[in-house]
Amino acid sequence: MPKISEIFVLQYGHSLELNRLEQSDGPDSVNFVGRAARNNGVTAKVKRIAAEKPAPAGTITVALGGQGGAGVAFLQPFPYYCGRDVMILKARKPMSDQEKLWWATCITANRFRFGFGRQANRTLKDLMLPDAMKVPAWVNSANLDRYQGAKLPAHTKPVLLTAPKSWKPLALQDLFTIKKGQRLTKADMLPGNTPYVGASDTGNGITARIGQDPIHEARTISVSYNGSVAEAFFQPEAYWATDDVNVLYPKGFQLSAATGLFLCTLIRLEKYRFNYGRKWHLERMRESIIRLPMTTHQKPDWDYMEQFVKALPYSSQI
Amino acid sequence: MTSKNERKTEALVRDALRELGYGEPDNGISVEEQKSEIAKVKSLLSKASKNAKGNAGYPEFLVSSQKDAAFLIVFECKPDVKKHESPARNKPIEYAVDGVLHYAQHLAKHYTVVAVAVSGSTASSMRVSTFLVPAGSSEYKDLTNESGEPVRDIIPFDDYYRLASFDPDVAKKRHSDLLAFSKELHELIWTKAKISEEDKPLLVSGSLIAFMNNSFMKTFSSLAAEDIQEAWLGAIKKELSNADIPQAKKDTMLQPYSTIAVHPNLGKPDSKTAKEYPDGVFKEILSRICENVWPYINVYHDFDVVGQFYGEFLKYTAGDKKALGIVLTPRHVAELFSLIANVSPESKVLDICAGTGGFLISAMQHMLKKAVTDEQRQDIKRNRLIGIENNPKMFALAASNMILRGDGKANLHQASCFDDAIIKAVRKMKPNTGMLNPPYSQSKSDAELHELYFVKQMLDCLEPGGTGIAIVPMSCAISPHPVREELMKHHTLDAVMSMPQELFYPVGIVTCIMVWIAGRPHAKSAKKTWFGYWREDGFVKTKHKGRIDLYGKWPAIRDHWVEQYRNREVHPGESVMQPVTTADEWCVEAYMETDYSTLTQEHFEHVVKSYAMFRLFGRENEQEQEAADAED
């Protein structure tokens, strides 16, 4: 079993301090790799500095300390700067990205050894890795380009946003029939695959999968009115909604993913009106007003909304 | 080195200083010429010669005062007005302004310095420029008067002092010094004296009152540890008897202090404590307060020192903030109240839940600022601030707070604000401005103590047409309650502003400010109510200092808010006018138009992207993220 230092050259990172750098999103900005365990270890994007050369793409970073990131390895696909206590690993012989990811996974498997009280500075180089001859065959056949193109819009002809000032106000009750959700405690949840929509602002509002039959139809909008208020999500599948969530059924029109997302954006805009002292309960939601683009016949211009959303990045995936 | 003509300029300055009373005996001011006996000044100037050769150098005049050992005035003189200042202000040998700034910047390491450059050899041709260098800063700025005009004459010491402490940078430094000290003091009291939470601020305020007594101030350090508590209480008693308060109130006020005066840990030290503090902990506490806090009281009258300590001490403990529903009003909110009410020397301000007196003190400052004559000042302090506080300990704090300012004490009452006799007496004084932060949510079962009953009680005390302002939980503006009808039956709801969600951090309560016109039935007034969305006050939460105005955004936001309210402006996303009844919600969120001008394509892109991510990766992605978060 080889040591890490037999496969990689270990080298201390730049040890830059993030608060001394200028954060930037500009085209010339550089990833800053800290001791985080997520987002590939990248904690910020910063302006390039003349005095330091970024580490090259294709190297692996390992955080040596820190609560979360100690011992976690990431393959860096872009040039980057490092914060304190980040080691840079450079392969001794040329290898594919797939193989580098394999080694990163093996190194990360050792993260239990490190943590708050024990840094990896001195011992990292001597960590034992699996035999280089025994890299599983599936490693090199992994497809790293599976998500290429996800960012593309559904169609490429850009559609401009018309001036929201020219849009017309409509009460939610004129657009939707609003129904309540129903509480289901954790103890009563059965294992299964029905989406369970809670008052969450992430994961399309879905907080669990349950075995019960869905109580709401697909292609509706879920809106939380308690907890994390006014999180509106378009639900593509039939689902169960908890009692902190109201469900909007379109009245006399079909909701597509694109028009649904357009509406969700506008519903979320009302968030500021509510807090835990003032909830968006059913009566308030029925009377709430949003503005929508209209056709010349003073009907919501669903076609425009559809086309507008389908020209946005990632809309090929909806 | 000094030329003959420069002597003339010096003589002019000397005469001016004498005329303005700098030389009078017993005023605590000392004027030194071309030297200084103050050790710290000596060391700061030991290498400050203007030729930058590292020799000692001294300005022509150096004025210091016993009042505040951290404040200096320096003068630099040049005979020729042409040598008043160089364009870049970097030729200290030749030019007066350049020279005085040179010295001031050396001294500013420890002192807040007023730098005065004087040129000219006759009184009529004399030119004067005045600058301020706040302590710890190397930046200088023009010293200006209250209306922003630069000072172009030599003025009395007290005026220099007042204008310098008026400066926001100086005030900020002073505040952070006090904050640092209150932490240190808390630590000392906590570890060595074991005083209960609510007695701590009393210990501070009592000590400050005791220091008003000259003989205690001079002798406490030579007293034996076992005698000091008695002397302390005696000094407070004496100062209270000098104060212009009725006997009954003096007794109520003294009561809370007597607990501290018999506290065993503050008396003769036990053998363990004696190793560290042979003279007892109390003496240590007293001398630290004397050194670090007393100057603020003595000098800066615009500062709610006791309130500051109370707030600081509360921060470390659960304290009484939950049990009694007491939440301390943040100071910038007290300031906001005075501006909403637009208090003036004609106002008569009532606070029926006075607490440590924060609203009254803030109102007093604003009223005094607008006062012109001494008579008005006296009138404000004596007749125009009325407070009621139920809790005897809080009352003692509020009263001591007022005594330390030498004012207002006669109209502070220790009683329930629902006591008929007191209310009758208060009504007789005809207050026309009410300010209120009632105790919050004193149990749902006790409906009589609903916050709005306090509001009603305040409004019922005010003269018809007077303004009553209250900060109350959001639920008061939304949930139906019979008292809402009672309020509108007699008074007009003028305005309601939704406040920042975390205003009372670390206490989690969402609040709004209500402004009422007393004694005018709402239906009869038949006017629209103004609603403001005041959710962003620029404050941020910090690790050690709580919620503060870290980026200095507050003054601009405050002025914007007040202007909006006074002119009843209506902007989407900021404010709205709406007629309301008892059945309606009284908050901006219900009526304001959403500001669609801020809606951009990015809003849509964000929604589409997170949906696309969900479609691509489902919930796995989220779960991984959560796991990573938990370990971070």
Automatic annotation (TrEMBL), chain A:
One of its GO terms (molecular function) is endonuclease activity. Keywords: DNA-binding, Endonuclease, Hydrolase, Nuclease, Restriction system. Residues 164-310 form the Type I restriction modification DNA specificity domain. Pfam families: Methylase_S (PF01420). It comes from the Bacteria. InterPro entries: Restrct_endonuc_typeI_TRD, Restrct_endonuc_typeI_TRD_sf. Belongs to the type-I restriction system S methylase family. This is Restriction endonuclease subunit S.
From TrEMBL, chain B:
One of its GO terms (molecular function) is methyltransferase activity. Signal peptide: none annotated. Its EC number is 2.1.1.72. It comes from the Bacteria. It catalyses: a 2'-deoxyadenosine in DNA + S-adenosyl-L-methionine = an N(6)-methyl-2'-deoxyadenosine in DNA + S-adenosyl-L-homocysteine + H(+). Belongs to the N(4)/N(6)-methyltransferase family. This is site-specific DNA-methyltransferase (adenine-specific). Residues 303-536 form the DNA methylase adenine-specific domain. One of its GO terms (biological process) is methylation. It is an enzyme of class 2 (transferase). Keywords: Methyltransferase, Restriction system, S-adenosyl-L-methionine, Transferase.
